[in-house]
Design brief:
Order of helices and strands: HHHHHHHHHHHHHHHEHHHHHHEH
Number of domains: 3
Largest sheet: 2 strands, antiparallel
Oligomer: single chain
Helix content: 55-70%
Number of helices: 22
Structural class: mainly alpha
Number of strands: 2
C-alpha cells in the first residue's frame, strides 16, 4: 500500500506508562468509568478525559469499549485520534510508525463499516497523505492503464522496496511504455533515479509527470526536493508552492514549504490558521445567537462573527437557492468580517477564528479572497469549483501563502516550537 514499513505490533506501541485513574487532580475515577459504561456514555467520558489532557486514561477507556465491540465506529475514530496524539509526541521511529499504523487501521475499519460516511474516508486519506503513503492502484485505475502496465509497476515497487534501484527503474520504464499517461509511473521513475543519486534523471522524471498532469502535486513537491539539492532554491520554492496550490489539503506539501521557510528564518502559520484545525465554536457557556455578557470583548467578537458566519449560510441559500459554493463562502466570510467591531485589520486577536477572518479581510483587499478561502478551508462543497479554478489561478494561491502565511520566526513563538519539534521527526519522502 505504501512506503512505510510498520514492524511493531499495535499492542507493543500502546504499552505506555498508564497513570492510576484517580491519581491526577480532577482525574476520572474507577467509579466514574463503571457508571459511564453502565449508562452507555463511556466515549463521552473518554472525550472528557482527552480534553483534560488525560490521554492515557482516555485510551484506556476507548480500548475497553473496543474490547466489548470492535466495530464501534465512534470508538474507532477516537482511538485513531488518540493514537495520532501519541505518535506526534513519540521520538522512537518504530514506536511512532506502529502508532501511525494503528490510526490507519482504525480509519480503514471505520470506513469499511460505514462506507457512505465521508468522515472515516476523509480522515484516512488525509493521514495517508501526511504519512507519505500512496495507494497507487487507485491512481492507476483513474487513468485506465492496461494490465501489463500494472504488473510492471508492481514489479517496480517490489524492486524499489528492496533498494534494487536499477531494477526498479527498468520496471518503471516498462510500465511507462505500456501506459505513458500515468503520472505516478513517471514520478516513481524519478524516485528510483533520485535514490541512486541521479538528480538530473530524477528531475526529468518529475517534469515528465507534470507534463502528463500539470497539477500532479506529488511530482511538484519531489521536483522541489531535486531543485533544492541542485542549488536552485528559487526553483524549489516555485515547485513546493505549486504542489500546495494544486492541492491545499496536501500535508506533505505544506511541510516542505515549512522546511524551506525555516531555512530562511521564516515560519509557516498555516497550522494554527487552518480552518479544520481550529475550534470554531461559541465561547464556553454561550449559545448560538446569544450575545455573551461579562466574558470579555474578544468572546463577544467571536460570538458576533460566528453567528453571522453560521446564519449567513441559511440566509444566502434562502435568497439565492442556486448560489455557488465559493460565492456562498465569500459572502459568509465578508459578513462575519463586518461583524468584527472596529478595524478588522488591526493586530489584536488571540482567537484563531478571528485571526482567520482577519486574514480573509486582508486578502480581500488585494483580490485574493478566493485564494485565502481555498488555502485555509477547502471542503467537499468547494472542491469542484476549486478543481476548475486552480490551473488558471494557482499563482494567486501561491502569492497568498507568500504574503500572508510566511512570517519572520521571531514574530511567531508557536511556529518556532513547531519547527523545532518537526526537525526531530523522521523525514518521510514518499507522499
Amino acid at each position: 500500500m505504501g512506503r512505510l514499513a510498520f514492524t511493531i505490533s499495535t499492542a507493543a506501541a500502546f504499552a505506555l506508562p498508564q497513570a492510576a485513574l484517580a491519581q491526577a487532580p480532577g482525574a476520572i475515577t474507577q467509579a466514574d468509568l463503571a457508571q459511564a459504561v453502565a449508562a452507555g456514555s463511556a466515549l463521552d467520558l473518554a472525550e472528557a478525559a482527552e480534553r483534560q489532557g488525560l490521554r492515557d486514561q482516555a485510551m484506556q477507556i476507548v480500548e475497553g469499549v473496543l474490547a466489548a465491540d470492535p466495530d464501534d465506529i465512534p470508538a474507532l475514530m477516537l482511538h485513531a485520534r488518540l493514537a495520532l496524539g501519541y505518535a506526534n509526541g513519540e521520538l522512537d521511529p518504530e514506536r511512532q510508525a506502529a502508532l501511525y499504523q494503528a490510526a490507519v487501521d482504525d480509519y480503514q475499519r471505520a470506513n469499511e463499516l460505514d462506507p457512505d460516511s465521508p468522515l472515516p474516508a476523509a480522515a484516512l486519506n488525509t493521514l495517508l497523505q501526511d504519512l507519505g503513503l500512496v495507494e497507487a492502484p487507485v491512481v492507476v485505475n483513474e487513468v485506465g492503464c492496461p494490465p501489463e502496465a500494472e504488473r510492471a509497476f508492481e514489479a517496480a515497487e517490489a524492486a524499489f522496496s528492496a533498494a534494487r534501484w536499477d531494477e526498479a527503474e527498468a520496471a518503471y520504464l516498462e510500465a511507462i511504455q505500456a501506459c505513458p499517461t500515468e503520472p505516478v509511473y513517471w514520478t516513481y521513475l524519478g524516485d528510483a533515479r533520485f535514490a541512486r543519486g541521479d538528480l538530473q534523471g530524477a528531475e526529468q522524471g518529475y517534469r515528465q509527470a507534470i507534463e502528463v498532469d500539470a497539477c500532479f502535486w506529488t511530482a511538484h513537491r519531489f521536483l522541489g526536493d531535486v531543485r533544492y539539492k541542485l542549488g536552485d532554491t528559487a526553483g524549489a520554492w516555485e515547485s513546493v508552492l505549486r504542489s500546495v496550490a494544486c492541492n491545499p489539503t496536501y500535508g506533505m506539501g505544506w511541510a516542505s514549504i515549512g522546511q524551506l521557510a525555516s531555512m530562511e528564518g521564516l515560519t509557516l502559520r498555516r497550522v494554527e490558521l487552518d480552518w479544520s484545525q481550529v475550534d470554531i465554536e461559541m465561547p464556553e457557556g454561550v449559545m448560538l445567537m446569544e450575545v455573551p455578557q461579562g466574558k470579555g470583548p474578544e468572546a463577544e467578537l467571536v460570538a458576533s462573527a460566528l453567528n453571522m458566519y453560521r446564519m449567513g449560510a441559511m440566509a444566502f441559500r434562502l435568497k439565492q437557492p442556486d448560489i455557488s459554493p465559493i460565492e456562498l463562502e465569500r459572502q459568509r466570510v465578508l459578513i462575519a468580517v463586518a461583524a468584527m467591531e472596529g478595524d478588522p485589520l488591526e493586530d489584536r486577536f488571540d482567537s484563531p477564528f478571528l485571526q482567520i477572518l482577519q486574514l480573509h479581510a486582508r486578502a480581500e483587499q488585494v483580490d485574493l479572497l478566493d485564494a485565502s478561502i481555498y488555502a485555509l478551508h477547502l471542503n467537499e462543497a468547494l472542491l469542484p469549483g476549486f478543481l476548475d479554478w486552480r490551473l488558471e489561478h494557482a499563482p494567486e494561491l501561491e502569492r497568498f501563502i507568500q504574503e500572508f502565511l510566511l512570517v519572520p520566526e521571531q514574530d511567531d513563538d508557536a511556529g518556532k516550537k513547531r519547527n523545532k519539534k518537526a526537525k526531530k521527526r523522521k523525514n518521510r519522502r514518499r507522499g
